[in-house]
Each structure stands twice: as structure tokens, then as C-alpha cells.
Amino acid sequence: MQYVSTEYKAAMKQTARNKSYMRISLGLINQEAQATAQVEEADFTYFSDTYTPLTTESVEKVYATLEQDFSRVDGSMYFLPREGSSRTLYTNGIVTEQLLGLADEASVMITFNTGDPLDIKGLTLTFGAAYPTLFRIDTDEVSQEYENSSAEFTTEDTFNNTTWMKITALQMVNGISRLRIYNIVFGIGIMIDDDKIVDSSLKSTLSPISEDLPTIDFSVTIENMDHYYNVDNEASAINYMETGQQAVGYYGYTLNDSSVEWVKGFTLWMQEWKADDTTATFGAVDVFTYMQDDYKRGVYHAEGISLYDLAIDVLTDAGKGEDEYWIDPYLKNVIVTNPLPVATHKECLQLIANAGRSILMQSRDGVIMIKSSFEPEISVSANQVAEYGSIEALLEDEATVEYAAYEQDFSRVNGAMYFMPRSANYLDVGYVSESISGADGTFEEDPVITLTMESAYTFYSLTLLFGSALPVSFVITTYNNGEQRDRFLSKAISAKTIVSYDFIDCDMITIDFTEAAPYNRIHLERVVFGEETDYELTYHELYSSPYGTKLEKVKEMRVTRTIYTNGTELKDLSTDDAVISPDSTEFEVEFSDPVHGLSVRLEEDDEEVDYGAEIAESGSYWCRVVINSPPSTEHTVNLTIQGYEYGVSTVTTAEKLHNAGTIETWENPLISTDEEAQDLLEWVGAYYKVENEYDLTYRGDPILDCNDLVYLESEYAPDLMIRLEEVGLSYNGALSGTLKARRRAEE
């Protein structure tokens, strides 16, 4: 669930809603051009970097150099190390040695390492503060001059049949200056607003027990009366779209003060598009859709491997960079031995998530996430505590009381408060600050509560339960390994304040209370980690009453664990003819049963031959053979893989859930020990214990995500909490939505 302001929540809940908006950004980037481009060697400065401008990395630390009206002494620039210095240089992009104004021109030549010419729609150049006001772009077919008035230049011009591109500065804004290019994007970003959007639909699904892969599907229809997106229009952007290009969506809602609050809706990847003379339709999908290649590196780890390291290996094999995924550090503590089967990368991630009792999902920023559902041991401390305060009670699920104290508008005589005892035998009151705020509500020293986890942890809300006196403002700061990560400012504060941020990978949290009511202490009764929610779906927000389904009961839950033992009999695991030559030197072999201890033998006319065959890479179900010394002409040989087959046995662990019903059997090949099976049995069993499922149609709200917990108004069950498993959101100038949810199990 996305964190929004109190004003947004109030305006969204009112009977007559205000106007909604939508905005979509399509990144029309020529992926082949971006991947194959390289800057030709030229007369660049020694601190120039010709590689980084072709990536997504930005220039943040600029060196001060002797150029007209360029260097600043306001602390924003850095001194340049001497040439030849051993110090690592900061990224400064492409910087020409020539100073335009002293030379006729300064240019950058780019070539594309591809066999066929490229058709490039649009170009985005980031120059920085010292930008050219006049420059020329030359390609195989085009020579065009451009006027420019900003640090970033964008054009929608097309550059067809392109094998090279030359960017030449003719005039600089500062006069005598070098040409700098911080970033080059071969394409443009198209922004589609309300004036073009006809309608859109977004649907996401997620299994709370990683039973299925998560999915996100998006479709938008836009007005095309100007024929800009027609496939027959050579200048149309639709001819330059590619599968896998990024699509980012935002939803806006008008608050009661007439301002618009925007919520990021999704980051997806283009899959399909079509157009006629009146409309164009685009479709985009989640990151998992394109993870279709198989992972074959699964091996048996006799010494064990953490699910964290296993997930990284799968993601790395899938070509994902470190900024494209996040794995809960808790999975470093879950050790498995069994191999992953040959399966797609996304299916392997699903197995890992399930084995670690975790959720596999994609964030709204497009990041792959494996999020555990467990809280680590947490300790709490504070920089100041009143004598009668009990800081440890913040993490305990016990009732607390309040003592009548000399604070402004605090004490009550309705029997709800206790008299302060003369002795130190105090009842649990939770945290109470020693300091009292001044007339303006601030403190001489802010009360700060510190929560420390035994390991890095991820959770999606923090609930603060306050006493009678509410703070006015606080700041939450998260850390990992001593490094500050995120800082959240308080928005809506009530007796039960739920901070619905994504607290990602943090091992310490501080809550700094910066202001209270005048002459008051901070009174905090409890801190609750997890997925608590203050979001409620009421009858007036539903288009019809909830459609409830009573699912069939599950009588018994079973988890199968798989146990591997080393084979003792050397076997011919695979034998087949193979044609080898200087152009045919690699072969892949898959096995139906898990194997180990592999070797390769080549035979020709029933005689063993030596062509330098070896097992270059192998897994428990696959291997890759390389021929290091192939014959000069084609030879047909018999290729045999020898090795051992693992002995595989299974054991079933079961738990009775109800007296009658079906039997659910859960199989995950990573599960081998009884402890792992028991943990998974308890986790999955808790899900199947609840049989109530709901289908809802409502007014729609872009802040809801799959796996969110929300309250559903019910005539028969007060405080009915449901977990969302499917979220649909439609927009046609107004919002509407559908939800599928399961009742949350009682704890």
C-alpha cells in the first residue's frame, strides 16, 4: 500500500470524489543502439569517460576546470587530481580537450557495433550546465543543426539507416568552453496525459504463499486522431517501439485544496501495440513475463547454500543487475542443500521464495523483490525515559496504563488514569519521555527511540500506538550497517498511527519526536511491525455487496521433503552421436534424474578418441561439453556422459487442519529437512485454514497493492480483515476497481 497524505485519504473517502488524473511515460529507447554504441577514440581530456554516458549512471561530482564562466566556488564542484595521479577519478562523462571558441568545433563520434543499420527514433542528450546553444548531428543519411537552450536536449527526429552518429558543438552558452556529454539516450520518452487517454486497465495478482507466479498486466487506449501512432506513418513513434521498453504510470487525485497528489502506479515493460485512425492501444507486462530462459546451474550443495545466495545466482544467470532486485537478508539464514530443477528463472525464484516462506513480487519501481514474512528479534532503547516509563513494554503485547501527570490538557478524572505511586513499583505505561515540550511544542533535546534488529529486515508498515497525548510531528530514519537509507516525515497522526512506507533492508530504525502539544511529554504505548492497516472498505465505496465464496475445507496439509544420497554405481548417463568440427565444439546435455561426478568420453568406430573433450559446466540435471581440440573437418563421434545418479527418496510431513475436506500436498524440491518441512507446513497450513474468499467491485484507489491487508465492513464480523490477492484498477477519466481477497487467518 502506498503512503499518501491525510488530505488524500480524506478526499478519496468522501461521498462525492474530486477529479482524478493519469499520466503515462513510454520510453522509446532503441535497445540495440544503446547496447552496441561506442565512442570513438579522439582528443578527450584525461578525466573523460567514454563508457558511462551510454549507461544509466549520472554525473554527480563535476570537476572545476579553466573555462569561461564555468567553475564555481560554492562547494558544488571538485578539485581535479593531477594527470597520472593514483586517485580514482569521478565520472565526468565525455569531455573534449578542444575549447570551443579557441577551436572551430568540438565533436564526439559514435559508432554502432551491429551488422545492420539502425533506425533510431529520437535522441536525448544531457550536456550539463555548460551546454551548446548550437550544434550539429551527422549520420549516414542526415546532417541537421539544432538550437538549444537547456542542459538536456531532446528531439523526436528520426535517424534511419544509421551506422554512425557525430555530435558537433558549434557554439557554447559560456563562450570558450569544452563540449561535455553526461548521458546519451538513443530514443525519447513520450508522455501521455489525460487529454489523450481514453481508458486504461491495470490488473495484478500475487499468491501470499508463492503458490503461483505474480503477474501484472496493463492496457491503455489513447486518442489517435492526428494519426501520430499509425503504423503506416513513417514518422510514427509506434514504428520505433520495441518489446521490453519501459512504461511508467502515475495516478493523480485532486485534493480539497485544489492541489493534485500523484501516486506512482507501475513500472512495466511494453509487450504489444496497435493503432487505427482514431485510437491506439498499448499493452505492458511485469518483469517476470520476459524471464523465460531456463536456469540450469542447480547443483546439490553438500555443505549447504543460503536461499539468499541461491536467489542471487538465479538472478545473475538471468542477467539482472544489483539495482534490479532486492532480496530479504533474512534468507541468508535459511540454508538448503537440494538442487534447483531445470526451470525458468522466474519459476526458480518462486521455489526459493516458497522455501523461505517469502513473497515473490515486483515493486512499483519495477524491482524484483523476495520478501520474507518473519520478524527478527528486536531490541528497543531511547536517549531519555521518564522514571516511570517502561521502554521494553513497547514491543510487548500487553495492556498498558496511564498515570495522571502534570502536563497541559492531559490528566483526566474519569477513572481512566492512575495515581502515581510514591514507590518505584510502577505499572507498565510504555514509553514516556523525560523531557516536557515548551510553549511552542519543541524540546530542548528531542526524545529519540531506537529499534535495533538482529538482522536486516523488510516490512511494509510500522504501527505506533499513542496514549492520550499525541505528538505533533516525528521523523523516522532507517539504517543498514550504520548507513542511513531512508527518512520519513510524519503525515497523519492519530492514537493508532500506521506508517505505510516500504521499510526496505534496515537493521536499525530511529523515531525522532520533533514536536508535541505544548507542555507535554511523548507517550507511546506500543510499536508494532508488520502489515497492519488502517484502510477500510465500507459499503458506500462498494458498487455491490461483497460476493463471498466458501471454499472447500482442507482436511489435511502435507509437505513432501526430498532427500538426496550420493550414487555409488558409475553409469553411462547419456550417449548420442555428435558432429564435431572447428565450428561445432559445444554440446549441451540434459538429464531426467539428478546426477553428479560427470566425465565425458568420445568414440569413433568403437575406438576412444581424444579431441580434448571436457565438462565445462554442469548442474545436477544438465552439463555443457566443450571440444578443445576438434578435427579440421567434420567428424561424427559417439559422445557419452558418464557419472553417478543421486539416490532420491521422499518423506511426507502432515498436519490435520479440519475433520473433513480435501488433502493438499505441497511439493518444493528444495525442502529436505524435517525443520524446513515443519516451518513450511505451518506457514502454508495457516493460509488453507481459512476458507472465506471475496470478490469486490468498488470505486477504485491506486494506492492498493496485492498482499495488502484491509478492513472490510461486515454486518456479521466486526474488524473483518482481508488480504488482497488480485487488484484491478480502471481509469476512463474516473477510477473504478475490482478486488479478490481471502479472509486473514485469526492469530
Fold and architecture overview:
With 747 residues, the protein is mainly β. Strands 1, 14, 15, 16, 17, 18, 19, 36, 37, 48, 49, 50 and 51 form a 13-stranded mixed β-sheet that branches. Strand 50 (721-731) and strand 51 form a beta hairpin. The longest helix has 15 residues, at 674-688.
Major β-sheet, in short? 13 strands, mixed
Number of helices: 5
Coarse morphology: globular
Structural class call reads mainly beta
Q: Ends: how far apart?
A: 22 Å
| Gyration radius, rounded | 31 Å
Instruction: Estimate the strand proportion.
Output: 35-45%
Residue stretches low in confidence (pLDDT < 50, at least 5 long) are none
In round numbers, the mean pLDDT is 89
User: What portion of residues is helical?
Assistant: under 10%
Total strands: the figure is: 51
Give the helix/strand layout.
Elements: H1 6-13, E1 20-29, H2 31-36, E2 37-39, E3 62-63, E4 77-78, E5 94-95, E6 106-112, E7 118-126, E8 132-139, E9 143-147, E10 152-162, E11 164-172, E12 180-181, E13 183-185, E14 187-192, E15 197-205, E16 215-223, E17 246-254, E18 260-275, E19 279-285, E20 294-295, E21 305-306, H3 307-317, E22 325-327, E23 335-336, E24 343-344, H4 345-355, E25 358-362, E26 368-372, E27 378-382, E28 431-432, E29 448-459, E30 462-466, E31 471-480, E32 483-489, E33 496-499, E34 503-516, E35 523-529, E36 536-537, E37 547-550, E38 554-565, E39 571-580, E40 586-590, E41 595-604, E42 607-609, E43 613-618, E44 622-627, E45 635-645, E46 647-656, E47 662-667, H5 674-688, E48 692-698, E49 709-712, E50 721-731, E51 735-743
Parallel strand pairs: 3-4, 22-26, 36-49, 38-47
Antiparallel strand pairs: 1-14, 1-17, 2-6, 5-12, 6-11, 7-10, 7-13, 8-9, 8-11, 15-16, 15-50, 16-19, 17-18, 18-19, 20-24, 21-23, 25-26, 27-29, 28-35, 29-34, 30-33, 30-35, 31-32, 31-34, 37-48, 38-46, 39-45, 40-44, 41-42, 41-45, 43-44, 48-51, 49-50, 50-51
Helix pairs in contact: 3-4
